[in-house]
Specification:
The chain folds into two domains: 2-117 and 278-288, Diaminopimelate Epimerase, Chain A, domain 1; 124-269, Diaminopimelate Epimerase, Chain A, domain 1, CATH 3.10.310.10. Strands 1-2-3-4-6-7-8-17 form an eight-stranded mixed β-barrel. The chain has 296 residues and is of the alpha+beta class. It is globular and about 60 Å long. The termini are close together. α1 (34-44) links the parallel β2 and β3 (49-53). The protein has five helices and 17 strands. The protein has helices at residues 34-44, 75-89, 132-138, 167-172, 226-238; strands at residues 2-12, 21-26, 49-53, 60-65, 70-71, 94-99, 102-109, 112-116, 124-127, 151-154, 158-163, 192-198, 205-213, 219-222, 245-251, 259-265, 271-288.
Length: 296
């Protein structure tokens, strides 16, 4: 026996065909077990792959897998999956998706999608386990490049945020792969760093980069990270920034995948992240039942 599953390839936070963060979305994952989802995520080798399932509390339930583990929530998988759910179910431009982190409202204006971060009760924060000078050194920077103390922020997925003094410092960051054992580790066991700076030359503009450790060693860079952008909103709330606030966030230029993210934080602290979704292609995979010989 075999089963065929259909998928779509999309770019999220994209302003051009080959911009943004790539995503694979499986349209109907009924019949897949966890091992199959994990194997498919590794097969496609993208930062995340999502699997759409029925839900009793939302238009669809979405499971998110990296190449190594499942995530409770992530930003660009939310927007890309919503784009596919709208096409499949004809839901219109307002829908909700169920994740392990909770039910997330998603809305669209054409192909520009926005989600509200699942941060009931406000962002959760924790201080850096490392002194500022050491954090800077891990990123190939000096302590004077830091604009404030690094901290953990969680508005759906906990990440390590490092505010820098300038866009130039963001562009100069070069993580030291020889010191990965020293990097702070998230609740999922992931080592990441989201560096950002407010652009003094453009009002309401932020430049950001997101680094993460790869399976097998080394550091990779994510082109567009919606959950980290949401955590930037959480950082604004946690540090007493004037609200409401609205920013555009540029990310991905360093890896030749320019991404544009929209961040809005209401006066009450609700965090909304958005960006354009472009569908690139569709396909299917056929999976043989375990133990079946291809020569049978």
């Amino acid at each position: 026996m075999s089963a065929t599953y259909h998928y779509r390839l999309l770019n999220v936070f994209a302003e051009s065909t080959f911009g943004g963060n790539p995503l694979c979305v499986f349209e109907d994952a009924r019949g897949m077990d966890d091992a199959t989802m994990q194997a498919l995520a590794l097969q496609f080798n993208l930062s995340e792959t999502t699997f759409i399932l029925p839900s009793t509390v939302a238009q669809a339930r979405v499971r998110i897998f990296t190449t190594g583990y499942e995530m409770p929530f992530a930003g660009h998988p939310t927007l890309g999956s919503a784009h596919v759910v709208r096409a499949l179910l004809g839901t219109g431009d307002a829908l909700s998706l169920e994740f392990k982190a909770g039910v997330v409202p998603v809305t669209a204006d054409g192909d520009v999608w926005r989600f509200v971060a699942p941060a009931a009760g406000g962002p959760r924060t924790a201080p850096s386990p490392l002194p500022p000078a050491q954090v800077a050194a891990l990123l190939g920077l000096a302590e004077q490049d830091l604009a404030a103390a690094p901290m953990w922020v969680d508005t759906g997925a906990d990440q390590f945020l490092v505010p820098l003094v300038s866009v130039e410092a963001v562009r100069r960051a070069r993580p030291d792969s020889a010191t990965l054992d020293l990097w702070p580790q998230s609740s999922l066991g992931r080592k990441t760093a989201y560096v950002f700076a407010f652009d003094t030359r453009q009002a309401n503009h932020v430049e950001a980069r997101y680094f993460f450790t790869k399976q097998g060693g080394g550091v990779a860079e994510d082109p567009g990270t919606g959950s980290a952008c949401a955590n930037l909103g959480g950082w604004l709330v946690a540090t007493g920034h004037a609200l409401p606030a609205r920013y555009t966030v540029d990310q991905g230029a360093a890896v030749e995948r320019p991404s544009l993210l929209h961040l809005a934080v209401s006066a009450q602290g609700a965090i909304e992240v958005g960006g354009r979704v472009i569908e690139l292609g569709r396909g299917s995979v056929t999976i043989e039942a375990p133990g079946r010989s291809l020569l049978a």
